[in-house]
Amino acid sequence: MSEGLGSSDGWGVMERALELSRAGVPFALATVVWRQGPSSGQSGSRAIVTGDGEVFGWVGGACAEPVLVRQAIEVIAEGEPRLVWLGQTDELDQIHVPNGVVTVPISCQSDGALQIYIEPAQLAPHLVIVGRSPMAVTLADMARLLDWKVDLVDGAAFGPASFTNRSVVVVATQGHHDEDVLLTAAGAPPAYLGVVASARRATALRGFLSDQGVSGDVLESMHMPIGLDLGHTTHREVAVAILADLVRRRAAGELPTAGLPTRRVAEAVDPVCGMTVDADDSSHPFDHEGTKYYFCCPGCRYSFKKDPAAYLAQEATC
User: Fold this and answer.
1) How far apart (Å, rounded) are the C-alpha atoms in residues 153 and 25?
2) Residue 143 — pLDDT band, cuts 50, 70, 90?
3) pTM of the entire structure?
4) Half-sphere exposure (Cβ direction) of 235: Cα atoms closer than 13 Å
5) Tens digits of residue pLDDT in 28-64
6) Residue 69 lies in a domain
7) 258 in any annotated domain
8) What does each C-alpha distance from 138 to 11, 127, 175, 194 come to in angstroms?
9) What does the alpha-carbon distance between residue 50 and residue 20 come to, in Å, rounded to a whole number?
10) Which residue in 26, 201, 296, 303 has the most C-beta neighbors within 10 A?
11) Which residue range(s) make up the domain with 196?
12) Which of 147-151's residues contact partners 24+ apart within 8 Å by CB, and which partners?
């Protein structure tokens, strides 16, 4: 599903990007950096693609949008930007394409040619701090200054709905409900689980959890004590030590963002133009002699319907 916006509405796209970022929704931002007519996309046109394939904005027509969605989902999953060049097959074969540029042949004449730069949103981790101590409050305040998505939860209120398998959970209950919180977290472990505790307290907690049947792998993954070891410090310095370690881990790619692409659709090749398309009802399906074929646009479907044998014969010789 797509919500179209012209290039003159680029600020609307950026406002939507800010909304998604604050909500922790994975997305990629696509910008047309070059076009060749008669493409309907314009230089500077922008669009957002979420991890489940929703499009907000406009970069091009029937051939460009499916390519954008597929490429954007890969960008979100890999976390690396890419430049995508859509053009006619014969034109792409005759030019030098720089290393790293993804080329996608298209046969839809109305779409001309486009170069689209697609970049993943750098979403912050979802940090769940369990506890109401001064250190926990300080840690929450500092993490919010980094624009991280932060939830401060009382130990008694912590439950399975408080986190996901991509959350970063810091247990700072400091003796109040520690065991209950850790048992809940161990039942469906988050991406990162750390506990504010002394070395002696950490040993006791590991023993308790082991006696309760928590697996060795889960116990090994817990960070107890959490943060950089600064010795005897104030609660503010403890918060700094914890956040500094989390920032280091995020920079190293050890902390995930709030979500992952959820869109997983089977793919098919359009027998007319050769484009890869989604094998679902959005790709203009057509049944021929018991086989369902999918197309990038109604025009390709119409051409195939007029003479299926010609295109199937062409496909068989490739």
Assistant:
1) 21
2) very high
3) 0.60
4) 11
5) 999 999 888 766 668 889 999 998 889 999 887 767 8
6) yes
7) no
8) 35, 13, 18, 16
9) 9
10) 296
11) 126-251
12) 148/124, 149/22, 149/24, 149/124, 149/125, 149/258, 151/126, 151/127
**pLDDT of the residue at 8:** 40
Domain membership flag for residue 105: yes
103 pLDDT above the threshold of 80: yes
Inside any domain, residue 259: no
Matching residue, tokens 């646009």: 297
Q: Do residues 48 and 5 lie in contact, with contact meaning Cβ atoms separated by under 8 Å?
A: no
Three-class SS state of 254: coil
| Backbone dihedral region for residue 15 (phi beyond 0: left; psi -120 to 50: alpha; all else: beta) | alpha
Q: How far apart are CA 147 and CA 158, in angstroms?
A: 23
DSSP letters spanning 265-305: --EEE-TTT--EEESSGGG--EEETTEEE--SSHHHHHHHH
For residues 247 and 253, give the distance between their C-alpha atoms in angstroms, rounded to a whole number: 10
pLDDT computed for residue 164 by the predictor = 87
Cα dihedral 292/295/298/301 (nearest 10): -50
- Encode 287-306: b = buried (16+ Cβ within 10 Å), e = exposed: eeeeeebbbbbebbbebbee
Burial class (CB in 10 A: 0-12, 13-18, 19+), 9: middle
Q: What total number of domains does the chain contain?
A: 3
* CB-CB contact of 4 with 57 (8 Å): yes
Both 133 and 243 in one domain: the answer is: yes
End-to-end distance of the chain based on CA atoms, in angstroms? Answer: 33
Q: Are 151 and 128 in contact (CB under 8 A)?
A: yes
Q: Going by C-beta distance under 8 Å and a sequence separation of 6 or more, which residues neighbour residue 283?
A: 66, 268, 270, 277, 294, 295, 296
Q: What pLDDT does 1 receive?
A: 45
147 and 222 assigned to the same domain: yes
**Residue 268 phi, psi (nearest 5):** -145, 165
